Task: structure prediction
Amino acid sequence: MDNLEYKKAVLMRLRRIEGQIRGLQRMVEEEVPCSEILTQVAAVTSATKKVSMAIVQGYMEECLARTVRGAEGRQESFKEFHKALSRYIDWA
Result:
């Protein structure tokens, strides 16, 4: 998947999540039963994890591509990736 396709796919997932969040807001406003709200929260959580994994994968591919192009900046690329991945793992 090229960079443009990757970006479109991530944005499409994020827009879907945005819609789910708006739906959750409506459910709370309309006092929908908690069990239904929690089911939707679980769906949003799952969608968020999926988009974050897509971003991690894209970031990995970017770092690896830089590494293949040459040693210049290689160490810094891996440090950036490690830092970002560490934040993600703490969240996940």
Summary: The CA atoms of residues 49 and 92 lie 7 Å apart. The mean pLDDT is 83. Residues 3-91 form a domain with the Methane Monooxygenase Hydroxylase; Chain G, domain 1 fold (CATH 1.20.58.1000).
